Amino acid sequence: MDPYGFINTTTLKGWPNPCNNPFWGSNDPRYIPNSLTPPNYDATGTVKKRQPFGNHAFIALAVDSDPLNHLVLDATSGPHVGDERLSQYLTAAIDITTNYNNLEEYKGMPAPLSPRLYLIPFSCHLT
Predict the structure, then answer these.
(1) Does residue 36 lie within any of the structural domains?
(2) Is the distance from CB of 1 to CB of 117 less than 8 angstroms?
(3) Structural domains in the chain (count)
(4) Containing domain of residue 50, as a range?
(5) Is 5 among the domain residues?
(6) What pTM does this model have?
(7) 36-70 pLDDT, tens per residue?
C-alpha cells in the first residue's frame, strides 16, 4: 500500500518495546532516534521528526469484491492475524490523528483517507 503513513503505537516484529517510529535506529540527524516518540510534531521543540512508512506490504485475503472487506494478515505491526477487515486494519494500524499529517512533506497521508492498494492475484494449490 502506498502511501502507508505513521503507525499507531504497537509492538513491531522483532522489537519488544512499544513503537510508533519504525525507523528509530536511523543515524539520520533529521529524525528522532527513539522507537516511541511523542505522537505529534512540536515546531517549537526538537527539529527531529518521527518517521512514517512510505509504503508497506501485507496480505489481504479476499472475502468479496470490496477490497475494504478483505481480511488482513500483517506480522510487522500488530500482529494482525486475519480477524480484521482491511477497513478495520487501517484504523488500528495507522495514526490518522497526528499533526505530522499536516506538514507539507507528508501531504497525501494518512493512507486510510486515500490508500492506493496494489492487489496481486495469486493461487495456491494444496496437495
Answers:
(1) yes
(2) yes
(3) 1
(4) 10-113
(5) no
(6) 0.77
(7) 888 888 877 665 778 888 888 888 888 888 888 99
